[in-house]
Write a structure and sequence with these properties.
This protein has 742 residues and is α+β, with helices and mostly antiparallel strands. Among the domains are: 366-443, OB fold (Dihydrolipoamide Acetyltransferase, E2P), CATH 2.40.50.230; 450-489, no CATH class; 531-616, no CATH class. The chain is built from 10 helices and 33 strands. The strands form 8 sheets. Strands 1, 2, 3, 4, 5, 6, 12, 13, 17, 18, 19 and 20 form a 12-stranded mixed beta sheet that branches. The chain has a 5-stranded mixed beta sheet with strand order 22-21-24-25-23, with no helix packed on it. The chain has a 3-stranded mixed beta sheet with strand order 8-11-10, covered by helices on one side. The radius of gyration is 54 Å and the shape is rod-shaped.
């Protein structure tokens, strides 16, 4: 005897026929045929989405309930017994097939995720969690463009969690398990073959058919964790199958683990999943309360039955019930009112759900917005990973830390550019897995426009940064517009350059450098400056004092009055220093400023000239020796005093004459003063003349006065006169008078 209960009330719909299938790790699907009185007004709007319960009486008189939500209803017509209807009953978990979602879960394990997703259906049914395993916390899990049902099934299959349904009058629960111990045993039932018209008084099986099938006997997996790239991740395990080809191996990548310890667990889980597909038992009987997810024991003392005395878990149950008053003739004596077909798994076999729900892969890249901590402009971790928010994420959740592809990467070398908060980036997914995002590029949008207006500046290739928490930027610009090709570089503040070996710079035309303040030039070894025409070094503006000194210098007189740097006010151009540092076209100002310098530099045309102009002060210090070689003339024009202080000897050698003109006094002060002339030595004043020559001493004067305490005139011998002839003899004599020199 059976009955049907609905929200329409008691006995409004009368059960005629019930059939359908329930299975572990699947949705049950029941069809209910029922009758209503001819004058009944069945409102499908009242029925849809509500619970309906089929209750069957067992052989022992107990009630067995099959409850589900009414998801379909059909009117089949009317007859002598009333109006005929068919209802379709499915679990509340079926509602999850209608909801498609995109969302992100952070730092949750699989049970946490399932509870959160299925909480939306709490009004329709209850979720019971009866698991015993420990599940790892998942850093990042994405439900992407898949139904809640597919997402939950995929997560359960991934972690080896099974589900089934437990029925009660007016409701049903969804039960999560990860071991056979959590499943209820409904009793022991004998196997009694069905013969003729015989019908037993106790529920039993009349068909029992054991079966086997080959399964993968070995599992090998590997994976990769970028945080530990050198760790060996490969794991494998072989099963215990003893039949031929029972060790066929399956190799899976990726293995879905981040460390070798978890890898061992995943390999074991995979081997159990494959092993659980081996043994199956098919049965047929009238055990109406044997639904999927329940256990039973095969009993009996008569005929030998394979597997008798063992416990089995029901994986699939197909139900068929016909009411005694169905149709016009009632039930035939040749048929049972209830018949069930069952598929069993031995309880000692692993109970792991098959991986049958495909992952919702991401096909192609998508864009996202870079996000991060409040009041920050850049937010990254030690690996340069950033946070992004996808446009489809309505909950404003952030992604996991996404790795950022660089143009080059190595051990502390390569490129390093961190996308900033607010930028729009291009995100791809490794192997299409939504749980593995990878930032591969950046794109402009209506808020973040290019550095230079387009298409006006389409020939530019630009790399511009943005000062952190300040206004300004560093920039490198390549201009490819012919014939004005140009490269411009701007440092917002400082610039450092390190060359560990040689540095060579070749400029085919002008080379202009402007320093706003000081410049230090340090060379630890040699320094050579080679100018094909001239070199000019100017310190300060060229004033009247310097111009006067230059005018007195005949060799420089032609340059001083017409020098282009003097005409232009020295290095007074401001193009480089006053370029718009916050505008969009600073490099144009830099380039134009350089052009002005180039125009001035074209006038530096005096060949072979070095000009040093110090307006205020100049100091030359040499720690050891100093040598100066002048190929032709040298002229020094000094506006004030000149002092030479020498710690050792002073020697002046010239191939021609030496002129010393003193407009004032000439004073020579020495401990000993020797003057040697090879031919003639003359001392002359306006009134007298003293001349020493090869023939002797001649004194010419209006008056000669000799004042001395003693005067000795000695004629000497004739031989001494010969010795005094010739320069060498006289010089030797003079040296003898001076004595030894240090």
């Amino acid at each position: 005897m059976g009955k049907l209960s609905t929200v329409l009330g008691k006995d409004v719909l009368v059960l005629q026929r019930f059939e359908g299938t329930d299975r572990m790790n699947g949705l049950f699907d029941y069809r209910v045929s029922c009758l209503a009185a001819q004058d009944s007004d069945v409102d499908f709007d009242q029925l849809m989405g509500t619970h309906a319960t089929v209750t069957l009486k067992g052989q022992d008189g107990s009630d067995r309930h099959f409850d589900g939500l009414v998801t379909e209803g059909r009117w089949l017509g009317s007859g002598d017994n009333g109006q005929r209807f068919e209802l379709r009953l499915q679990p509340w978990f079926w509602l999850a097939t209608m909801r498609r979602n995109q969302r992100i879960f952070h730092e949750k394990n699989v049970i946490d995720i399932l509870n959160e997703v299925l909480a939306a259906y709490a009004a329709a049914g209850t979720l019971q969690v009866d698991t015993s395993g420990q599940y790892p916390t998942l850093e990042y899990t994405v439900q992407y463009n898949e139904s809640d049902f597919n997402f939950c099934c995929r997560m359960m299959e991934r972690h080896g969690i099974s589900y089934h349904f437990a029925f009660s009058e007016g409701g049903h629960d969804m039960v999560l398990t990860d071991g056979v111990e959590a499943h209820e045993n409904v009793g022991s039932f004998p196997v009694k073959p069905y013969v003729g018209h015989h019908q037993e008084d106790t529920e039993h099986l009349w068909e029992w058919r054991p079966g086997r099938r080959m399964a993968t006997g070995a599992i090998r997996m590997t994976d990769y964790n970028f945080k530990t790239p050198t760790v060996v991740m490969e794991k494998d395990q072989t099963g215990t199958a003893s039949y031929e080809h029972g060790q066929v191996e399956s190799f899976d990548w990726p293995g879905d683990y981040l460390d070798p310890g978890r890898g061992i667990e995943m390999v074991q889980l995979g081997l159990k999943r494959e092993g659980g597909r081996d043994k199956r038992y098919q049965g047929m009987g009238d055990i109406s309360n044997l639904v999927s997810g329940k256990k039973m024991t095969v009993s009996g003392d008569s005929d030998p039955v394979p597997g008798k005395g063992a416990e089995y878990l029901c994986l699939v149950s197909q139900h068929s019930y016909t009411s005694d008053n169905y149709g016009s003739g009632g039930s035939s004596g040749d048929d049972f009112a209830y018949t069930g077909r069952y598929t069993f798994l031995p309880v000692e076999a692993p109970m792991i759900p098959e991986k049958k729900t495909p992952r919702a892969d991401v096909r192609g890249p998508m864009t996202a917005k870079v996000v991060g901590a409040d009041r920050e402009e850049i937010d990254c971790d030690e690996y340069g990973r950033i946070l992004v928010q996808f446009h489809w994420d309505l909950s404003d959740a952030r992604s996991m830390r996404c790795r950022v592809a660089q143009n080059w990467s190595g051990g502390t070398w390569g490129g390093m550019i961190i996308p900033r908060i607010g930028m729009e980036v291009l995100v791809e997914f490794l192997d299409g897995d939504p749980d593995k995002p990878l930032v591969t590029g950046c794109v402009y949008n209506g808020k973040n426009m290019p550095a230079y207006p387009l298409p006006a500046n389409k020939t530019k290739s630009v790399f511009r940064t943005d000062s952190h928490k300040a206004k300004g930027f560093n920039e490198l610009v390549f201009e490819d517009e012919s014939p004005d090709e140009h490269i411009a570089f701007k440092a917002q503040k400082d610039m450092s350059r390190l060359v560990l070996n040689n540095s060579i710079s070749r400029v085919k035309n002008d080379d202009i450098e402007n320093v706003g303040r000081n410049k230090l030039f340090e060379v630890r070894n040699s320094f050579a400056l080679d100018a094909g025409k001239s070199v000019t070094i100017t310190a300060g503006q060229v004033g009247p004092d310097v111009s006067s000194a230059m005018a007195r210098t005949s060799g420089l007189r032609g340059i001083a009055g017409t020098h282009p740097l003097a005409v232009h006010g020295g290095f007074g151009r401001t193009g480089l220093l006053k370029a718009d540092e916050t505008g969009a076209d600073a490099n144009h100002a830099m380039r134009n400023a350089g052009k002005e310098y180039g125009d001035a530099a074209q006038d530096l045309s005096e060949a072979g000239m070095l000009e040093l102009l110090a307006v205020n002060y100049r100091q030359d210090v040499t720690g050891m020796d100093s040598h100066e070689v002048v190929g032709r003339d040298k002229l020094a024009a000094i506006g004030g005093d000149m002092v030479h202080e020498v710690g050792g000897d002073v020697e002046l050698v010239t191939n021609r004459k030496v002129d010393i003109n003193a407009m004032g006094n000439f004073i020579s002060n020495a401990m000993s003063h020797t003057m040697v002339s090879a031919t003639k030595f003359t001392i002359a004043t306006p009134g007298a003349k003293l001349e020493l020559g090869p023939t002797g001493l001649t004194i010419s004067a209006m008056t000669v006065k000799v004042q001395s305490a003693s005067v000795d005139f000695n004629m000497g011998a004739g031989g001494q006169a010969a010795q005094l002839k010739g320069t060498s003899a006289f010089v030797a004599g003079a040296s003898a008078l001076l004595g030894p020199q240090v």
